[in-house]
Amino acid sequence: MAQASPRGTYLQVSESLRQQIEAGGIGDTLPSEAALMSSHGVSRNTVRRALKVLEADGVVASAPGIGWRVARGGDRRSLAEKMTDLIAEDSLSAGDAYPSEAKLCDRFGVSRTAVRRVLAQMEGNGLLATVHGKGRTVRALPTPTHQP
């Protein structure tokens, strides 16, 4: 990136990567962060912010031990949406046990840290309750977010 952008350099990098992915210029796995830093002339922090933007949009996903992978088709909902929708998908009602962290990691193919972050959000929103030694239970059913 030649000059500072009022839009944010990380947004320029994310848009450049998005275009490369859509054009087929990037295969299943993105180049390393070091290679992206070199090719775009930016810092590691800028690359990471750009990748987080693409991750939030469902364009890429972090693969522990591998790097960043292109998310091809499939479910483009965020992890928070998937975990919230799981209550309805599994026909859970208030008082029912919510799946364990390990089962959620396996089901969604994400790290325990990512699962814990979303579980904390769900608890903060009043959807789940944690009982020490018992696990998590559904506290309330989510309200529909889609407008008809």
Describe the structure.
It is a single chain. A two-stranded antiparallel sheet has the order 1-2. It has a two-stranded antiparallel sheet with strand order 3-4. The protein has six helices and four strands; from the N terminus they run H-H-H-E-E-H-H-H-E-E. The model has no long low-confidence stretch (mean pLDDT 85). The protein is elongated, with a radius of gyration of 18 Å. Strand 3 and strand 4 (135-138) form a beta hairpin. It is mainly α and 148 residues long. Helix 1 crosses helix 3 (44-56), helix 2 (33-40) crosses helix 3 and helix 4 crosses helix 6 (112-124). It is 45% helix and 11% strand.
State the main characteristics.
mainly alpha, two-stranded antiparallel sheet, 6 helices, 4 strands, 45% helix
Strand order of the largest sheet: 1-2
Number of strands: 4
Let me know the largest β-sheet: 2 strands, antiparallel
Radius of gyration: 18 Å
> What share of the residues lie within helices?
40-55%
Number of helices in the DSSP assignment:
6
Rounded average pLDDT: 85
Structural class: mainly alpha
Strand content: 5-15%
What are the SSEs and their pairings?
Blueprint (H helix, E strand, L loop, with lengths): L8 H14 L10 H8 L3 H13 L3 E4 L3 E4 L8 H11 L11 H8 L3 H13 L3 E4 L3 E4 L10
Antiparallel strand pairs: 1-2, 3-4
Helix pairs in contact: 1-3, 2-3, 4-6
